[in-house]
Amino acid sequence: MKKILLGTTALVTVGLLAGPALASDPLKVTVGGNVVTGFYVVDADNVTGTKFQTSKVALVARNIDIKAEGTLDNGIVAGVDAKLQLNNDWNSHNNVPASSSIATFRQLFAYLEGGFGRFEIGGTDGAAYKMHYTSPWFVPGNGVDSPNIYNGVSRRSGAVGGPELRLSTFSLMATDSNKVSYFTPRLAGFQLGLSYTPNASDNNPTANGLVIQQTNSNITNVAEIALNYAGTFGGVDLGLDGFYTKGDSGGSNNGTPQEYGFGGNLGYAGFTLGGAWYKSKDLDYKYGVSDARKGYGAKVWTAGLKYATGPWTVGAAYLDAQDDSDSFTGRNGRESKGWQLGGGYNLGSGVDLGLDLQSTDNRHNNTWAAQTYTTNSAGLVLAIAF
d(Cα 275, Cα 5) in Å, to the nearest integer? Predict the structure, then answer.
């Protein structure tokens, strides 16, 4: 997941939209994208007799970005942002790695931007996600918070091949679902963001022009509020944020799904120190899918340090994820601890070469046998943005 921090933005009021303001020229269309690849040597513990491969080729962040933007005669900026994902890392319906060669729009939304803020509508991440600070990424295309490449093993890895615990401090309850968002202008360093998602059960932008959704969907009426601060004091860059997300569940036994967290970055003379904390309630998140489930939850925190000079970047980061579910679920006590060391070198023109060292311990509670599975890996990463 590529982390995005929304900078100074602007919104158009309804009054400004009343007239037929047209751009003097057509919107300018740009096409770009990114691909992250890596070759890893892996040493992983066996899991209940299941052995794991000793090497791995990763191919992730396979995106084509199509953007159209232009300035209208009245000074308003209008645009469309579309992110085409080339195949999926995970099949969210079957919880298994996707095998078919498909291309789907992961995000597709329109926006208006001017002197009064920014307005977005469509399938994209919400305000809580876009305004969040966390531990820095220093390996090209990969980090501990919402990793693109993860080499840890778990009790269920032999069955479906993915992490059992949530490895992100970002608000993901309504990620990529159709929503409406508003971001205020940045005043004295502060910015407020608000998002509303009628139906968060479907990831990716979905067409909804001919029908309305039934009200028994798993998660509906998701509201997000986020506040962040960005400023510089005597050469020191400071960024802070806090967010809260709440939704309705489709059944009486699903509780009230909620997420809240905060994060921060401190930068000086090439160094960036960052971290974040997250907690969820009545929410189960695995393999890219959020489900409202009463009594389920997670706690995640992370911290990291990065140093960048010229084309070089190096750093270290740590993430601790814990299942915070009630005892009756049989899942409380699971924990994942992961370290990442490494860095990258920019070869020019969006081409980065990096070294990624990972060490992960995954532990399970008594229901799953209280055993810790350790994975150590080293990889050479090539990330290309175009």
Answer: 14
pLDDT digits (tens, 9 = 90+) for 44-81: 998 877 888 999 999 998 999 999 999 999 999 999 99
**pLDDT number for residue 327:** 72
CA dihedral angle for residue 51, residue 355, residue 141, residue 361, rounded to 10 degrees: 40
Distance of CA 22 to the CA centre of its chain: 35
CB 358 within 8 A of CB 336: no
Q: What is the DSSP string of 134-185?
A: -SPP-BTTB-SSS-SS-----TTHHHH-S-SS----S--TTTTSEEEEEEPP
> Is 222 in contact with 125 (CB distance < 8 Å)?
no
Cβ(64)–Cβ(386) under 8 Å? Answer: no
Q: Phi, psi at residue 129, to the nearest 5°?
A: -75, -50
At 32-44, the pLDDT tens digits run 999 999 999 999 9
> Is residue 302 within a helix (H) or strand (E), and if so which, with residue range?
strand 298-309
Predicted TM-score (pTM) of this structure:
0.88
